[in-house]
Amino acid sequence: MNADTARPLVTLDEIRAAAARIRGVARRTPLVHGSSSPRATTLLLKCENMQVAGAFKIRGAANMLARLDRDDLARGVITYSSGNHGQALACAAQLLGAPAVVVMPTTAPSVKVNGARSFGAEVVFAGTTSSERKAEAERIRLARGLVMVPPFDHPWIIAGQGTVGLEILEDCPDLVEVYVPVGGGGLLAGVAAAVKGLRPDARVIGVEPAGAAKMSRSLAAGAPVTLPSTSSIADGLLPVRPGDLTFAHAQRLVHEVVTVDDDSLADAVRYLAREAKILVEPSGAASVAAVRQRYRSLDAIDRPIVAVLSGGNIALEQMAAILMG
């Protein structure tokens, strides 16, 4: 058994405790049919695009901040993020009166930068990769004595994200498959821990961009792999490496991780806008892209399948360009 396989996974009790801890901060998001037509498909959409700060990330950030003591909060918190986690941390910190710093890539979409600033965070830019912004965040943390709130590779973050899985099974107890977008793997790890803890026979499937296939490459290698670079319109799914703990969850609990290309991501964004009347960013639409890639016709789906729409933070100009594409 290798070191990753031996790592303790987040438990169902920890996820349930997180659900109680974040109640009143994170929303319970709806689970809706994947089409607005009268003949509804059995594909269901978990609408985390309707979450506080526009993405599932508020769950993990709120859970971790709720576990910090007053002295930690008074010193302030810091994170590194492509956007959605940064906004979530800024929002959760503002609610608790804690100063927040978010290190973002120089390529971060303005809608996500402005979102973090609107919640009172100080935004610092560093490089274009997750490793570059992590290094800058660590430097600032040490210089200012701040508390690091990592974007995905921490048990408190994973437990918070796992509340998505709890809600899915409460609303769809006969779940057969759930598709989950994969960036660093925190959402995938949390959903897998919740779903497999309550329904061991259900399949959990991760979805990442073909240009950022860090989790699928890592699973094939048997250990976390660092990609030299990543590229995709799914800006929220571009870490070059999965976390050690998120990888351990994927290795032990996830059925498979599949990839989708940018054309499929754009098609999924258009499908959701046209058929489900839902606006989702490309990262959030990855799950639907994978379902459409596998099943071709969603009308052919005859069993309960859930696709997690992980976020909806997209500039109107980008959405218009995708819809016109």
Give your account of this protein's structure.
The chain is α/β, with parallel strands linked by helices and 325 residues long. It has 2 domains: 3-54 and 154-324, Rossmann fold; 58-148, Rossmann fold (3-Layer(aba) Sandwich), CATH 3.40.50. The chain is 46% helix and 14% strand. The protein has helices at 3-6, 12-22, 57-66, 70-75, 84-96, 110-118, 130-144, 155-171, 186-198, 214-221, 244-253, 262-276, 286-295, 316-324, and strands at residues 31-33, 43-47, 77-80, 100-104, 122-125, 147-148, 177-181, 203-209, 256-260, 305-309. It has a 6-stranded mixed beta sheet. A 4-stranded parallel beta sheet has the order 5-4-3-6, sandwiched between helices. Strand 7 (177-181), helix 9 and strand 8 (203-209) form a beta-alpha-beta unit. Helix 3 (57-66) runs parallel beside helix 5 and helix 9 (186-198) runs parallel beside helix 11. The protein is globular, with a radius of gyration of 18 Å.
Compact overview of the structure:
With about 325 residues, the chain is an alpha/beta fold.
Q: Note poorly predicted spans.
A: 1-5
Largest sheet: 6 strands, mixed
Strand proportion, as a percent range, falls in 5-15%
Helical proportion, percent range: 40-55%
Number of helices: 14
Number of strands: 10
Question: Outline, from the CA principal axes?
Answer: globular
Tell me which CATH architecture of the largest domain applies here. 3-Layer(aba) Sandwich
CATH class identity of the largest domain? Alpha Beta
Q: Supply the number of structural domains.
A: 2
Beginning-to-end CA distance, first to last residue: 48 Å
